[in-house]
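Input/output pair, single chain:
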Amino acid sequence: MPLRPGRSYRNYNGPAFTRLEYMNVKPKSKLMKVTMGNPNRDYDYRVKLVAKEQLQIRHNALEAARMAANRYLTTKASKESFYLVMKTIPHQILRENPILNTTHADRWQEGMRKAFGKNIGLAARVKPGSVVMEAMIKEDALPIAKEALRRAASKLPKKYKIVIEKMNGQQKNENKS
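Output:
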């Protein structure tokens, strides 16, 4: 059965479902790395991708955004000139009740009886104002980092803004994406 579209899981209104004792197997996360680049360097700026709305981000969307940002940063700047950190980690378990769409499916399927659903993936719950990912970078590569996070935001659902801060904590400017 193919993966349902992201709009099926983008919004949420119930409590988090992370209890492992109620399920047989926890799905594996597709998010491979959380940190990329060189963490041991002094950087001038911190560029953050901040969520504007409450949403759920599936683990495959987080991995696509991470790969897009990392690829752009490594091609335009070297691996030693940035440090990219994923701040949002998926823990919410997504379930779906598979429905048969074949001839005589009504004889095999139980319908809504025992409709708890199977585990199909993981998602991260994000609140407005929370940081999804951030990049630390030198001043000369600041436009590269902004473009990398803009490309990462295009892989994620809903809207985000890019916030640029100096590493001493003073906020420099804010860029809407």
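The chain has a mean pLDDT of 83. Residues 49 and 162 are 5 Å apart (CA to CA).
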